[in-house]
Automatic annotation (TrEMBL):
This is Polysaccharide biosynthesis protein. GO terms for molecular function: polysaccharide transmembrane transporter activity. Pfam families: Poly_export, SLBB. It comes from the Bacteria. The lineage of its organism: Bacteria, Pseudomonadati, Pseudomonadota, Alphaproteobacteria, Sphingomonadales. Keywords: Signal. Residues 48-120 form the Polysaccharide export protein N-terminal domain. Residues 1-32 form the signal peptide.
């Protein structure tokens, strides 16, 4: 049997690989640790303060005006095309704000004393990425928590960090760390949940 010894050069190569692997683990841990904890406002966030976005489908009712009442989609640009008055910015705005703008514009010579009501028929989806068994896009369901969303995506993989996941609200500035089993955080339409790997 022939045995090959690495020699000094082989040992240096193995040492370099070991150092690189350790550095990768440390960087991954630092990236995870760098995400701020989820804010109190985001924990408490619900549909009461919901802001419309691309992919939402709404029903606009203009009382006593059946030709204006109908279903409308929020476009990828975040706009709503409405008869008579044209395009209205809807993305990133509350339902109440869009109602007020439609009411004001219809009152500019189109409808006498307009009364406008908006309800969301279909909310845009949410997304779950990373270490789950079925990552991808999922339809929104009212009242769903982050843990329930993970279960819907087939649960954790064997590599997953099951203690903390990361949540990005569509209206937020970046990811927030969500400690599981200690906070019941609701999923909102347009959210992205990322499940990272555990490193040790």
């Amino acid at each position: 049997m022939n045995c090959k010894h690495d020699g000094p050069r082989g040992k240096r190569r193995h040492l370099a690989l070991a150092v690189a692997g350790a550095a990768a683990l440390m960087l991954g841990g630092c990236a995870a640790a760098g995400a701020p904890p989820i804010s109190t406002a985001d924990v408490a966030a619900g549909l009461e303060t919901y802001r419309l976005g691309a992919g939402d489908k709404v029903r606009v009712t203009v009382f006593n005006e059946p030709s204006l009442t109908g279903e409308y989609n929020i476009t990828p640009a975040g706009s709503l095309a409405f008869p008579l008055i044209g395009v209205v910015a809807a993305g990133g705005r509350t339902i109440e704000a869009v109602q007020q703008e439609l009411t004001a514009k219809l009152a500019e010579g189109y409808v006498n004393d307009p009364r406008v009501s908006i309800e969301v028929l279909n909310y845009r989806p949410f997304y779950i990425l990373g270490e789950v068994n079925r990552p991808g896009e999922y339809s929104y369901a009212s009242g769903m928590t982050v843990e329930q969303a993970i279960a819907r995506a087939g649960g954790f993989t064997y590599r997953a960090n099951e203690k903390t996941v990361f949540l990005r609200r569509q209206t937020g500035q970046g990811e927030s760390a969500v400690p599981l089993r200690s906070a019941q955080v609701a999923v909102l339409p347009g959210d992205t949940i990322r499940v990272g790997e555990r490193y040790f």
